[in-house]
Amino acid sequence: MPPPSSAQQKVLTAQFVSLTGATERQATKFLKSTGYKISEAVDAFYYSNEVKAPPPIESKLDAQFDTLRDDKNDEKDKMELESTMEYLSSKLKISIENAELLVALEVLQAPSVGEITRRGYVDGWKVAGAGTTHQEHSLHIRRLSSMLSTNHSVFKKVYKYTFVAGREGDQKALSLENALIYWGMLFSTPGMVWKSENHDWLDLWKTFLNERWTRSINKDMWNMTLEFAVKSVADESLSFWNEDGAWPSVIDDFVGWCHGKGIGRQGAMDVDAE
């Protein structure tokens, strides 16, 4: 992986200084030694001889996590479903019905939709550099959520993590039922709206899957659906698709299904006529 650009290095340095109170010289030293991995750099700084006090932000976040747990029903280092949803809706004041939920789960590296770990909570907010109050954390989630529809890298990060958090137990794939729910959240406001001028692609995709697909959704199908979504919004004729492409068979079948409804046929007819 190439090193971050000069601009990215400056951002990481400023974030390191904000998190630790270190000098820019110290920040540069530890960031370079860890390949500019902010979380590792902060940990290395606090465990070095250059600082004697415990990490103030980490200590605050760790104590804060304890106030959010239900001592009777939660394990020591985990918030279970009820505590997690209470935290997200009451403390962060985010919607658990749309992509805001998925943004929060990615920031906190939640192992599942209804679970937040102590390590994920502390490290997530520490790396985010969003302060230690619920209000600051809420603002951070809302800021990221507002970027979903315009910043593809932010959306892609949340989209890919949704597959990880959305699986049940030790399953390697998403159930169709859950995948449809998460696609509905991701491809609607405040997420990337999967529509073009003449077609509601999300609705078409869900209708097709309900009619024709009975299996679970593996990682490749999940990721390629995003790629297809981006291309179909930009080119609703589907002229980017061809039978010899590297699309999974379910995408090929979906395009054929669309052609059968007169959707995207103009692009296909133009190719055939050449």
UniProtKB/TrEMBL annotation:
Matching InterPro entries: DCN-prot (IPR014764), DCN1-like_PONY (IPR042460), PONY_dom (IPR005176), UBA-like_sf (IPR009060)
Highest taxon of the lineage: Eukaryota
Keyword field contains Nucleus: no
PROSITE patterns: DCUN1
GO molecular function: cullin family protein binding; ligase activity; ubiquitin conjugating enzyme binding; ubiquitin-like protein binding
Limits of the DCUN1 domain: 56-259
GO biological process: protein neddylation
GO cellular component: ubiquitin ligase complex
Keyword NAD: no
Entry keywords, A to Z: Ligase, Ubl conjugation pathway
Function: Neddylation of cullins play an essential role in the regulation of SCF-type complexes activity.
Protein name: Defective in cullin neddylation protein
Organism for this UniProt entry: Metarhizium rileyi (strain RCEF 4871)
